[in-house]
Records
---
Amino acid sequence: MHDDVTQRRSVAEHAAAVAEAVEPALAAARERASARVDVATLLTQVGAGAGLSPRVLARDAVAAVALPGFDNSQMDGYAVRSADLAGASVGDPVVLPVVAPVPAGTQPPPLKAGTAAPVMTGAPVPAGADAVVRIEDADPPRFPDPATSAQVRFAAPVATGAFVRAAGSDVAAGDVLVPAGTPLGAPQLGALVAAGVTTVEVAAPPHVLLVSTGSELAPAGAALGPAQVHDANGAALTAALGQAGARVTIRVAPDHPDVLLRVLADAPGDVALVVTTGGVSAGAYEVVRQTLTDAWFGHVAVQPGGPQGLGTVAVGGGRQVPLVAFPGNPVSAYVSFELFLRPLLAAATGASPAHRATGRAPLAEPLDSPPALHQVRRGTLDADGRVRLTGGPGSHLLTHLAAATVLVHVPPGVAHLDAADPVDYQELR
C-alpha cells in the first residue's frame, strides 16, 4: 500500500490518474459487450423516458437507402429545363406554359421541353427537369389554379442543379451513416430512420459494482437498527452512475474485511469497474484501505473529498478490474464522483452532457476557503445571476447538496472571497 498523507495530489493529478486506470476498462467493456437492437425499440425507449443516456454504436451503421432517395426540390417553385431559360432577361423574359403541379409524395411524369411544373418543397423533380426556380423569382410570384391554363414568365437564366437536392447527395446506399463509437442521440436516430436502417449494434452499458461500506449502514428501504443510518451514498451514486450511462449493482458491506472480499468475489462476471464509498481514511475501521492493500490510498488537495483510493481489485474468478474508492461522507462521495468519474463514464457511454456546463458569476455573499485546498461548495444562481451558497462547507450537509444546482469552485491559494467577487461554477442539472 502506498500512502503519504503529507503529500496531496492536486485535483488535476488525481483526475488524470483515475482516467488512466478507468478509460481502458470502459473501452474494453464496450468492445466486449454489444447487442443488436431494433431502431424502433430504441425510439420506444426514448419515448418512454429511458433516453437520458444514449446508447453508443458498437459497429458502423450503414445506410440502407440513399439520402435523398430521389432528386427533390429544395424550394417551392417551378421545375424547369435550364436550357429553356438560357436567354431569359428582364427585357425579354421567357414565357412557358404551366403543366400539372407536383405535390410532395407524388411521382410526376417527365417534364417536356418548353414547359414549367409547379413543384413543392421535398417533392420529386420530374425527369427531364434539371433546376428549380423559386416561386418568388417567377412572374407571377404565385402558383396558378391547377384547373386553369396558365403561363409563367422568367426574367433570368437558372443554373443547372439550382435548388435541386440530388439523390445520394447526403449519403449513398451502403455508405457509413453513423460511425462506431457515436452516441445515438436525436440527430443520429433521425438519420438512421431516414436511411432505412432497422437494426444497429450498440454497446451494452458498462456494469459498475457499487459497494457502500460501513457497519452503520442500512440499505434503502430497510429498517434502521441501533446507531444505524440509511445508505445515502448508495442511493445517490446509483442514480448518478445510471444517469452517466452505467448499469449498477449495489451492495452494502459492514466494516469486516472478509465480508468485503466476499462481496467482490461474488461480483457479476461482466463488472467493468468497482466503486466503493467509505473506509479510505485514517481511522481504525477503514475496511477498504485495510483490506485492499495493493491499491493507492492517499489525499487529494480538495475539500470535500480529500481521502481517495485508486487501484485494481480482483472480482469474480480473480479477474482484475479498476477500483475507484471514494470517501464515505455523502457530499464528499458525490463531489468525488462529479470531479473524477462522471466525465469518464459520460464520454464512454454518450451520456449527456459529456461535460457539465460551466460559468463564472459574482458571489452573492462572502466565503472563506482553506488556501491549500481546492474547495468545492454547493450553490444556486439567483435571479440576478449571482452565486448563492447553499449551506456551509461540511461534507455531511446532504440536504444542502440536494438543494444545489451548481458546484462552486474555489482554487488553491484563495483564502477569502468577498460578495461580488467572481467565482467559477459547474452546473449540476
---
Amino acid sequence: MPRNRDMAAMERDFSRLRIFTGNSNPELVRKISEQLGTPIGNSLVKTFSDGEINVEIHESVRGMDVFVVQSICYPVNDNLMELLILIDALKRASAERITAVLPYYGYGRQDRKVLPRAPISAKLVADLITTAGASRILTVDLHAGQIQGFFNIPVDHLFAAPVLLDYLRRLDHDCVIVSPDAGGVERARAFAKRLNASLAIIDKRRDAPNVSQVMNIIGDVEGLVAVLLDDIVDTGGTLARAAQALSEKGARNVFACCTHPVLSGKAVGVLSSSPIEETIVTDTIPLREEAMRCERIKVLSIAGLLAEAIQNIHRDESVSSLFV
C-alpha cells in the first residue's frame, strides 16, 4: 500500500511537467521524454517561405513547469530563433516557470574580446534568452565556465564526464589522457585522475583560425593508449594533427573523446584519414548524414543525465550530485 501511494505521488509530481522542443535535436528530446515518461508537448515550429520562424503551442501550459530542450547548433541562427520564440510563446501562455535546456550552447566560443571592437557574442545570447523569458538554464559542458556568469538567472552546468568515463573505462587500462592545448589541462587532469591514468599535454601554436600546428608533447605517451580529450570537435584539424604527433612519439593507439560533435566542413574526412581509431562523442548535437555513416565515430547519449537533471529541477531537489 505505501508503494502505491508513492507511485501516485510521483504521478501527481509530474502532472505539471511539460517538455517542448524546436527542430534542433528531436532524437535526443525523444530519448529524454522516454526516460521521464512524459510526452513531448504538442507544438508546431516551422519556417515561413521568407525565412521567419513561426511557433504554435497546441496545449495549455498555464501554471506549468516547462522545459524547452534546444541545442544551438547548425543551423545556429535558426535554432537560436526557434528557442527564443518558443520561450516567448510559453511565457505569454502563462507558464509558471520556463527552463531552457541547452545541450549545446552555440556562440560559446565567443566568450571574450580577442580583438579591439570585437563583440562578446556568448553574453549577447545569454541576454537574449533571459529577455525572452527563461527562468533558469540547464546546459552541458560550456566551452568556458565563466559563461555561467553571463546570466542573471540560475544556471545548472552539467558535464558529460559520467557518460564518457563509463565508456573509456572499457579501453585498455594502460592509457594516457592527452589535452590538445593548455586550456584543456584541468579537464584532462580530472579525467586522468578518475581513470587512474597518466596525463600529457600538447603544446601548439595557432597560425590562423581553425588551423593549429603541433609543436611538442609534454609527458610520456610511448607504448600507451592515448586519449585526446576536448569539449568540442569542429573542423577536426587540431585532433588530427595531435593524433599524428602522438603516433610519431610512439603511442600504441589513439582515441579522441569530445562532448560536442560540431563536425563542420570536411571534419569527418579529416578525422577518418588521421591515426585516430575512434572519435567518441555525445548526442548534444545530432550527427549529419556523412558523420552517421562513419564507423570511426561513436555516439553516446546524455539523455539519461539530462532527464535526471530535469526531474531534480522540477522537484526542487539538488542537481549538484550530477556535477562531475
---
Amino acid sequence: MSDQKKIRWGILGVAKIATIKVIPAMKSCTRGVVAAIASRDLGKAQAAAQELGIPKAYGSYQELIADPDIDAIYNPLPNQLHLPWTVKAAEAGKHVLCEKPITMNSAECREMIAVRDRTGVKIAEAFMVVCHPQWQRVRELVRSGRIGSIRSMATFFSYNNTDPENIRNRPDCGGGALMDVGCYAIMTARWIFGEEPVQIKSLVEYDPIFKTDRLSSAILEFPSGRSVFTCSTQLVPYQRVMIFGTKARIEIEIPFNATPTTKCKIFIDDGSAFAGANAVTEEFPACDQYTLQADAFAQAIQENGPVPVSLEYALKNMEAIEAAFKNG
C-alpha cells in the first residue's frame, strides 16, 4: 500500500500512552502513518515530533484538527477531554480513535453517537485488547464449546499509584479504579459472554483524600453466567483473567498489558490433574496490539466497514460502569 493511500494520523497531546506505546506502534502500521502531533505547549509537541519522527508539530489541538492533510485523530487526552475534542474533530470531518473509557458518563457517549451520525465519520473506543490474537483465540475457544458452557469469569487488575497530581487520582478527570482499569474487566466479560449484564452488584471503596475509588469489586450477572472482578489503583500491580466452563477453564497470563516483544500464553485446563498439571499451553508470537488496533481502524475507514469497538458497544460499557458505581 503506497503512502498516498495510507490514513494520515494526527495525535492530540503528548500523553505517555501516546508517545511510549501508541505512536511507536503506529510506525509499524501498514495502513497508516503518523503525520502530525499537537500539544498546548508547542515546545513539547516539537520535541515529541523530533524524537518520534513525526513531520508536523502544532501548538494547539485545534490547529491539528484544522489540517486538511489529516484523515484521522487519535485522542489519548484525559477522560474529561474525550467528548469535546472528539466532537471538534468529527465536526472537522476527521475520524477519531478515542481512548477508553470513551466519555465521563453515558449521556456524553450518547452525545458523541449523535455527532458521529450527523457528521458521518468513524469513531471508535480504543480497547486494543480485542485486536490481540490471544483474546480472539480465547473467544474462539469459548464459542466453539472447547470449555463447555461458559458459566463464570474472574478478573483481577491492579496497580499502585498514590500521586495526588496524577489524573487517575482526580475525580474531575474521571479517575479511579472502575474508570481506568475496571472498564477492561467489564468490556472483556461482555465480549466473551457475548451478552449484556442483566444485573450488577458491587462494593466500592473510596480514597478519603482523592475521592476516587481505589478498590472496587463487582458481580455482573449475565443470562448465561456470572463475571466477577476486582480492580484497584492502590495495590500491588497484577492482572489475570480466568474463564470457567462446564468442561474446562481458560487462564490468560497477561490479558491487558501484553508487551510487543514478549510471547503471550493462555492455559486450557480440564481439571483432570491437581494444580493444572495437565493444562494445555497455547503461545502467541510477540505482536503489538496497538499496531493491530490502528490498522483495524484504518481499514474500517478505507473500506467503510465496522470499527473494532463501536460507540454503541462503548455506551453499554459506560452504562455498566455507572451501574457499578450506583450499586456499590
